[in-house]
């Protein structure tokens, strides 16, 4: 550039000879500059990008975001729009310098602002994880809880053991059904709600918890120390709810890795015993692994049937189809039971079976969680879980419930909606209070009868045709 | 090669450096652009001194703003549906300000901010009462109660009989959510109550929640005029002297929606009906009693009031004023700047030569330290030197309290009535680019001698407990009667 400025106007007036040389020189200089331009531009960009690498922790895309934000700022014509980072920045700065009270620490303020920002999306699963929560999430990768493995219910003065789970630490330590836990680690449960008591009993694997229990026939409270361990809650239970009509019910309690195997075992038995109808009970099943859901659905759907579509911001990302060689052609009427606690993988299976007209749904509207979250670290110790995709049933129904005016709207609507008895609890031996199940049995009996009379009619007609 | 080679190397270096620099400038610019373009201190009702907002939004830890920026960009790029940045910004600031746990530091929507400004100009919508939120804690149980701070004279709220200090419990039969309704359920669970009892409590809580309004919904409902009656009716109150309630005669204004409020007052529950409207509050009223005693009622402490007050005082002085009653009962809307302007003629020069006279103090925070700064004004060349009585009550709020206190210390005024509201927060109103905004407590007022009136209120010199009628007539207004009596006594003592 300085080469250019060397020729100032006073030089020009000197002589024509000089001005000729100047023209030639200028021509060459221009030529050189044109040649040098791409080199200069690329060096300029290199400078920009390397500054970006140094400024950020090398996250690609952020420099583009910065450029876009700058361009947006320069073009800022729309006065009705706000840019969250700018608005936050300004408000935070005002709070730090002018707010009268001692403001909370800046990280707490930032987390609150981020929480608020994400709240506007109306999706409870897109959330920011503060350091403590992020750490807990990283530790607890397995997802299974550790405790003592007993089903508890509320009782005067504490918590009553309904039953210890098979092969659980509680059973091994000698806890019995009917025992009333009155203290945990010496802390009385006199004024503790059941939820809180359960939380007190649970804890990290291999740690010990001491329970004080009252047992019928024992004059004094007994103390039992139990080592906490992974508790595998049973996944599949098989019931014969109507022995006359041979209506079987498989209660699938979650979609763990083992669920498909256990389901196979139950289905084998059902087929062996000549079931006339099947109830797949997905009530209170919170979901689990997507792979297990696909496996489970594949037992009921012919090869290559669409089970679920995964839709992202830009469109369908993936179509998951029934896996070959899994289909068990049951040829009997099937009912799927759902309730408000059937979520995620349960809804995928229920939706797929319904859309392919393999089963009808009976019960209460399902929970409505059909989302895929991706956890992305945002700093050394924080992360954000973002809903990056959602599940659609084969017919394209969005499984996810939305929160509209503070109320959940969505989830799967059952074909036959039945309001459950208030006193019903999942796993109750006595099924007389289970109004949803009663309705399902009624529907299936009618189907069995219709089939019988239908097949009678066919059989009756067959000879006539011959 | 020689110098040419050097020059080209220099140019290459320059290109690289300028690329680098551009990035740094953009990036820094992005992070610090804040207050320049987004926040402008549009007007600060109680921020007096000419503190210009810093051009650069400085945040002590840029890592935190970078974190926010990163989360926002990730969500905008990755979230399963398109996002609305403006909504995200609103919700973000709302939570940010809520986390300060201060009733005066709140996010305002475009609509709310507009109403704020209108009210300051005397264009009041809704029931005409200033509402606030009172937080109460009993151990684990926290309540946030909707409270009437002040009732504007001539407002629907006043006609309905609302009083400062009333708690609004229900609006149109809907519970105003003041606490977690499931607290009772938790208590029953802890007491190992039987299932049925817990379920009933749970259902009650759900039912309560279903039929409820949040605090901000309730405030919004009460500070909005019905859509049909948006035209201002300035001379409305003249017709309302005899029959305050005309709701049964079914006039043409059937469109006006009546609101039924359930109040608690001193432990008792009562129901009242209010008809929200849009009213124009006159900044002030004045008259001269017995050709001697001036009476100045300040409904608003805004710039219009400041202008009119100067004229009113001139008129009163020309009429031969020997003493003045300043009525600040129920005065709750105002600006610090206007308040100082109105005070100006009453403050005399101290020791003759002082250019600036402090009338109050503001405590503010600087880092971790609290400092005090005087609120000064330039005294007028001829101050008003007649005895002054000031009428105050529970509805005298914030800058009006500041004014009463400044009149007592600076103009030897005597205060009659009841203790004031006791809120000395200095509140600033901010504007964001899209017209929404927020308020922030930026300081706390003190008397010029350091008197604290926050949460204590200002105690009157003469306590007169009768609820005032605010009619400005001595008969039926014991506080005014008493003030006038005192003025004539001091006058007699002088002569």
Describe the structure.
- The complex is a heterodimer of chains A (466) and B (495).
- With 466 residues, chain A is α+β, with helices and mostly antiparallel strands.
- In chain A, 38% of the residues lie in helices and 23% in strands.
- Chain A is built from 13 helices and 21 strands.
- In chain A, a hairpin with a 7-residue loop joins strand 7 (208-214) and strand 8 (222-227).
- The radius of gyration of chain A is 34 Å and the shape is extended.
- The model of chain A is unreliable at 1-14 and 460-466 (pLDDT under 50).
- Among the domains of chain B are: 123-230 and 257-280, Pdz3 Domain (Roll); 284-494, 2-enoyl-CoA Hydratase, Chain A, domain 1 (Alpha-Beta Complex).
- In chain B, the strands form five sheets. In chain B, strands 3, 4, 5, 6, 7, 8 and 9 form a seven-stranded mixed β-sheet that branches.
- The longest helix of chain B is centred in the first third of the chain and has 30 residues, at 3-32.
- The relative contact order of chain B is 0.12.
- Chains A and B meet through helix 3, helix 4, helix 5, helix 6 and helix 9 of A and helix 1, helix 2, helix 3, helix 4 and helix 7 of B.
């Amino acid at each position: 550039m300085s080469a250019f400025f060397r020729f100032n106007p006073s030089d020009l007036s000197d002589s024509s000879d000089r001005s000729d040389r100047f023209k030639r020189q200028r021509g060459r200089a221009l030529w050189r500059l044109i040649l040098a331009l791409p080199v200069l531009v690329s060096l300029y960009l290199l400078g920009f990008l390397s500054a970006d690498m140094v400024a950020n922790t090398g996250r690609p895309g952020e420099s583009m975001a910065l450029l876009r934000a700058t361009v947006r700022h320069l073009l800022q014509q729309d006065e009705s729009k706000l840019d969250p980072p700018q608005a936050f920045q300004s408000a935070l700065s005002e709070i730090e310098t002018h707010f009268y009270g001692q403001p909370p620490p800046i990280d707490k303020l930032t987390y609150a602002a981020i929480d608020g920002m994400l709240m506007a999306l109306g999706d409870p699963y897109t959330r920011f994880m503060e350091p403590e929560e992020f750490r807990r999430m990283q530790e607890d990768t397995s997802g299974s809880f550790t405790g003592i493995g007993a089903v508890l219910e509320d009782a005067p003065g504490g918590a009553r053991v309904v039953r210890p789970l098979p092969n659980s630490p509680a059973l091994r330590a000698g806890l019995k059904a009917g025992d009333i836990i009155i203290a945990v680690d010496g802390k009385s449960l006199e004024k503790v709600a059941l939820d809180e008591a359960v939380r007190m009993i649970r804890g990290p694997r291999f740690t010990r918890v001491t329970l004080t229990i009252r047992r019928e026939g024992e004059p004094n409270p007994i103390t039992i120390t139990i080592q906490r361990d992974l508790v595998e809650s049973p996944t599949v239970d098989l019931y014969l709810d109507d022995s006359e009509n041979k209506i079987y019910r498989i209660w699938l309690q979650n979609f763990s890795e083992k669920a498909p195997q256990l389901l196979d075992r139950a289905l084998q038995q059902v087929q062996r015993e000549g079931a006339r109808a099947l109830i797949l009970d997905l009530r209170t099943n919170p979901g689990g692994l997507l792979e297990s859901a696909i496996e489970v659905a594949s037992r009921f759907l012919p090869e290559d049937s669409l089970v679920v579509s995964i839709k992202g911001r830009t469109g369908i990302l993936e179509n998951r189809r029934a896996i070959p060689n899994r289909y068990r052609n049951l040829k009997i009427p099937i009912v799927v039971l759902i309730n408000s606690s059937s979520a995620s993988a349960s809804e995928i299976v229920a939706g797929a079976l319904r859309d392919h007209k393999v089963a009808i749904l009976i019960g209460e509207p399902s929970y409505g969680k059909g989302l895929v979250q991706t956890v992305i670290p945002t700093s050394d110790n924080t992360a954000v879980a973002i809903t990056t995709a959602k599940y659609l049933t084969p017919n394209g129904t969005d499984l996810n419930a939305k929160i509209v005016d503070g109320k959940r709207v969505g989830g799967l609507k059952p074909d036959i909606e039945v309001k459950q008895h208030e006193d019903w609890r999942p796993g109750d031996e006595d099924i007389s209070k289970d109004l949803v199940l009663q309705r399902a049995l009624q529907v299936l009996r009618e189907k069995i009868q219709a089939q019988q009379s239908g097949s009678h009619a066919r059989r009756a007609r067959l000879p006539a045709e011959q | 090669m020689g110098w040419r080679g050097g020059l080209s190397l220099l140019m290459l270096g320059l290109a690289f450096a300028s690329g680098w620099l551009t990035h740094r400038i953009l990036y820094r610019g992005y992070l610090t652009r804040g207050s320049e373009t987004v926040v402008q201190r549009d007007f600060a009702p109680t921020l007096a001194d000419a503190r210009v907002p810093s051009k650069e939004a400085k945040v002590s830890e840029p890592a935190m703003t970078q974190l926010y920026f990163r989360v926002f960009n990730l969500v905008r790029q990755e979230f399963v549906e398109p996002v609305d940045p403006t909504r995200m910004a609103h919700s973000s600031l709302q939570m940010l300000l809520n986390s300060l746990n201060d009733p005066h530091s709140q996010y305002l929507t475009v609509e709310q901010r507009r109403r704020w400004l209108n009210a300051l100009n005397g264009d009041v919508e809704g029931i005409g009462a200033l509402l606030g939120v009172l937080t109460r804690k009993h151990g684990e149980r926290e309540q946030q109660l909707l409270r009437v701070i002040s009732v504007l004279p001539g407002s629907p709220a006043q006609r309905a009989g609302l009083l400062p200090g009333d708690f609004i419990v229900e609006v149109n039969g809907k519970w105003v959510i003041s606490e977690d309704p499931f607290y009772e359920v938790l208590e029953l669970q802890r007491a190992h109550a039987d299932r049925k009892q817990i379920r009933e409590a749970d259902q009650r809580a759900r039912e309560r929640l279903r039929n409820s309004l949040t605090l901000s919904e309730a405030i919004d409902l009460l500070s909005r005029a019905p859509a049909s009656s948006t035209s201002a009716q300035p001379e409305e109150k003249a017709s309302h002297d005899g029959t305050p309630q005309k709701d049964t005669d079914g006039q043409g204004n059937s469109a006006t929606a009546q609101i039924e409020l359930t109040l608690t007052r001193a432990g008792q529950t009562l129901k009242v009906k209010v008809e929200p409207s849009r009213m124009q509050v006159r900044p002030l009223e004045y008259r001269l009693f017995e050709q001697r005693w001036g009476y100045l009622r300040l409904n608003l402490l805004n710039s219009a009031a400041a202008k009119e007050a100067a004229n009113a005082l001139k008129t009163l002085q020309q009429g031969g004023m020997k003493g003045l009653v300043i009525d600040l009962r129920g005065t709750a809307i105002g600006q610090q700047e206007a308040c100082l302007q109105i005070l100006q003629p009453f403050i005399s020069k101290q020791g003759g030569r002082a250019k600036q006279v402090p009338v109050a103090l503001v405590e503010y925070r600087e880092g971790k330290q609290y400092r005090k700064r005087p609120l000064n004004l330039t005294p007028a060349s001829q101050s008003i030197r007649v005895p002054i009585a000031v009428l105050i009550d529970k509805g005298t709020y914030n800058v009006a309290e500041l004014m009463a206190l400044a009149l007592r210390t600076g103009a030897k005024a005597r205060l009659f009535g009841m203790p004031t509201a006791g809120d000395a927060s200095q509140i600033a109103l901010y504007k964001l680019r899209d017209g929404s905004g927020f308020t922030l407590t930026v300081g706390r007022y003190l008397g010029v001698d350091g008197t604290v009136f926050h949460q204590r209120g200002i105690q009157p010199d003469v306590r007169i407990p009768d609820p005032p009628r605010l009619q400005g007539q001595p008969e039926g207004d014991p506080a005014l009667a008493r003030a006038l009596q005192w003025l004539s006594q001091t006058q007699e003592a002088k002569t």
